[in-house]
Amino acid sequence: MARAHRCPACGGAQLIRFCHVKEAAAGQQMIDLSLQKHRSVWSGVQATGARLEAHACRSCMLVEWHATTLADVVVDGVEVIVIDGSTSAEERSPPYR
Ligand SMILES: [Zn+2]
Fold first, then answer.
1. Residue 92 pLDDT
2. How far is the CA of 15 from the centre of ligand 1 (A)?
3. Which residue range forms the structural domain that includes residue 42?
4. Number of domains in the chain
5. Nearest to 33 by CA among 19, 47, 54, 43
6. Please, is 16 exposed, middle or buried when counting C-beta atoms within 10 Å of its C-beta (0-12, 13-18, 19+)?
7. Is residue 67 one of the residues assigned to a domain?
8. How many A from CA of 9 to the centre of ligand 1?
9. Cα 38 to middle of ligand 1, angstroms
10. What is the pLDDT of residues 28-84, one digit of tens each?
């Protein structure tokens, strides 16, 4: 939806873009919805990686989420894992011998 400006489900062209989707953090603070957050004693909860924006179709109500960037995402291998689909299935799991 973000690139084509069309809904992939119904073909509708009337979309709403939510550039900043807010969520409540500690206290009265509102922060941008993101895929990663950091909690600090000094500054509370902060969005630290992959701020999200959304596009909604006014016709069928489909909502698509997009990360504005993934450059600042911290990959830890536990909560955030990289999946590389560029290798073939045979390379990923060799045949049993
Ligand atoms: Zn639609």
1. 63
2. 8
3. 15-72
4. 1
5. 47
6. exposed
7. yes
8. 5
9. 35
10. 788 899 998 877 777 677 777 889 999 999 999 999 999 999 998 999 999 999 999
